[in-house]
Predict the 3D structure of the following.
Amino acid sequence: MHSKGIPILMYHSIQLENRNSSLRGLSVPPLLFKIQLYTLKILGYKGLNLTQLLPYLEGKKSGKVVGITFDDGYQNNVSNALPILSKLGFSATCFIVSGNIGGFNHWDISKGVSKKRMMSEHDIRRWIDSGMEIGSHSQNHIRLSEYDQTTIENEVLGSKRILADKFNTTVDHFCYPYGDKSDKVEEVVKNSGYKTACSVVRGKTYLSSNLLSLPRVLVNHRTFPLLFVIKILSKYEDGR
């Protein structure tokens, strides 16, 4: 299995968007999301959070598995994605912006994207209590490589501590905002004790993959069933 690569699915918003919405490219309608997950089930795959997936990424386990991740922490991940995940017995990791719990996607507004609600503390606790996992997406969703060492440490390590303390859970996984990283940023992530970190580089993961810069398989409103299957079963995403 691992020689063929392990897909880590990259989701954002699970909501039907208007055709002219700037967020449409990062959204998946709930019905399509449901079809995608049922497709995994039919193909014999198990959807895992990153903690569950780690032994497979390290080559300690093998099997038909995919990682499921959500960036940013949209409230619709709870209202639209969680029921389907739970019904199928899947789990997922949601990367939370620790300084924006209960807020909105302020980093998108300058791009003409409409406001979207983010998970509240109650939503996050419901997510965790339902067998899901949270990771860190920094404190303020900034381009980390553009900042000084102290700011990077506050964003990376600070968010880990805030989330762990607030929700009494382990936070072992990080996701680089905008996929923006540098050697300095990766070093801070490593020194902060994260076990994995996700990038926005497209592709499957292999034994040779850097655990602190994991590629992922992009899933959006155009990922219809046939393309979804191709992305899961082939090297379609590699190097895209």
About this structure: The first helix runs from residue 30 to 42. The helical segments are 30-42, 50-57, 76-88, 121-129, 149-167, 183-191, 225-233.
